[in-house]
Design brief:
It is a single chain. The protein contains six helices and no strands. By secondary structure, the protein is an all-alpha fold. The chain folds into two domains: about 1-45, no CATH class; about 45-104, Helix Hairpins, CATH 1.10.287. The longest helix is centred in the first third of the chain and has 19 residues, at about 10-25.
């Protein structure tokens, strides 16, 4: 919220908390608060194999990639897509989530 509204954030939060939550979720591309449950159910419907395949695709890897290959791809993509170097926050989170899924 502070990233969107800066020093005005505490005042706005006191006055219109739920509206700001919706605005923040929209900025992150998550959607409306009430839609979050639907998105969660859709993600849960994916099989573990489907999630793993999607994670590999996000990192640009083939099935059977080694742990070292996963780490190297993550490192390479994070350097390019980190928000501190001008990357999109959503893309960065997608890369990080794929990495966490594959190294567990």
């Amino acid at each position: 919220m502070f990233a969107l509204h800066g020093p005005r954030a505490p005042d706005l939060l006191d006055r219109q908390a739920l509206g700001l939550v919706d605005e923040l979720l929209a900025a992150l591309g998550i959607g409306h608060r009430r839609d979050h449950g639907q998105a969660h159910r859709e993600r849960a419907a994916d099989s573990p194999l489907d999630r793993r395949e999607k994670a590999l695709a996000v990192l640009g890897l083939q099935r059977g990639a080694s742990r070292e290959a996963v780490k190297a791809a993550h490192r390479r993509l994070v350097k390019r897509h980190h928000p501190d170097v001008g990357g999109e926050v959503e893309t960065f989170h997608r890369i990080d989530a794929a990495y966490r899924l594959l190294i567990t």
